[in-house]
C-alpha cells in the first residue's frame, strides 16, 4: 500500500525506513532498549514529538540565560559574546 503526498508517492517501506531512522536517533528509544525489541511507529512518532518539544524548551531556557548573562556583563564583554555568537 502506498500513500500520496502532493505529487510524490511514498511507500509503506519508505515510511517504515524513516521510522527506523527516527528510532535510532532518539536517545530514549535508541539507547535504553535492546535493538531487537520492536517499538511501534506510533511510539516512535510520539517520542520524536516529545524530544523535539524538550529541545525547544532547552533552547528557550538557554536563550533566556544568555540574555540574563549579557545584561549582567559590561558592554565590552557583552560585545565579545555577541561577536562569538555571530560567527
TrEMBL record:
The keyword Nucleotide-binding does not apply. It is found in: Nucleus. Keywords: Coiled coil, Growth regulation, Nucleus, Transcription, Transcription regulation. It comes from the Eukaryota. Residues 1-55 form the BHLH domain. Residues 45-79 form a coiled coil. InterPro entries: bHLH_dom, HLH_DNA-bd_sf, PRE. One of its GO terms (cellular component) is nucleus. This is Transcription factor PRE4.
Amino acid at each position: 500500500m502506498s500513500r500520496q503526498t502532493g505529487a510524490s508517492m511514498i511507500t509503506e517501506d519508505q515510511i517504515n525506513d524513516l521510522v527506523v531512522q527516527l528510532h535510532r536517533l532518539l536517545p530514549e528509544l535508541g539507547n535504553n532498549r535492546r535493538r531487537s525489541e520492536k517499538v511501534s511507529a506510533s511510539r516512535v512518532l510520539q517520542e520524536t514529538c516529545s524530544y523535539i518539544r524538550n529541545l525547544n524548551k532547552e533552547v528557550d531556557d538557554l536563550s533566556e540565560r544568555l540574555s540574563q548573562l549579557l545584561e549582567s556583563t559590561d558592554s565590552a564583554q557583552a560585545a565579545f559574546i555577541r561577536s562569538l555568537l555571530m560567527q
